[in-house]
Design a protein that fits this description.
Elements: H1 11-24, H2 34-41, H3 45-57, E1 61-64, E2 70-73, H4 82-88, H5 113-129
Antiparallel strand pairs: 1-2
Helix pairs in contact: 1-2, 1-3, 4-5
């Protein structure tokens, strides 16, 4: 099974989290051009550019052109939750009924209702309760091997 199979989040969400984790590990005021960010995260540069555009529009990342430019966090890492990142790249956490039923609740549950509700609650708690500052600051951001 590859690393992406069985993932709870789609590839765009994972790439967005990788990029934000990498930017959070930079010194204050430091930035990375998209080519360097792509190399450090192992994300194809064109794909990463689209992800970064969404993060800029959401005002989580600042972009500066020209010499000394690049991408940097627009806010302190402690003020950016993982839910902010996922929302910015249009990756909401699984919602609704797993079977797609309009009326699915404890009074009228689908077969997956109890475990699906537990998963949704756990993911929401994780994403809203975790910030970029919670990431391992001592963990080096490594260049991924292809």
């Amino acid at each position: 099974m590859s690393a992406m199979q069985g993932s709870l989040l789609n590839l765009t969400a994972i790439y967005g989290l990788r990029a934000m984790a990498t930017l959070a590990a930079l010194a204050p005021g430091e930035s990375l051009v998209v080519a360097d960010l792509a190399e450090r995260t192992g994300v194809p540069q064109q794909y990463l550019s689209k992800v970064m555009r969404k993060l800029v529009v959401a005002r989580l990342v600042r972009s500066q052109r020209g010499p000394g430019g690049g991408f940097m966090l627009a806010k302190p890492p402690a003020s950016i939750t993982l839910a902010h990142v996922l929302g910015a790249i249009d990756q909401g956490l699984a919602g609704g009924c797993a079977f797609g039923y309009d009326a699915c609740d404890t009074a009228n549950p689908c077969a997956l209702h109890p475990v699906w509700t537990q998963l949704q609650t756990s993911l929401a708690s994780w994403s809203t309760g975790s910030t970029l500052a919670d990431l391992a600051p001592s963990a080096p951001v490594r260049t991924r091997r292809k």
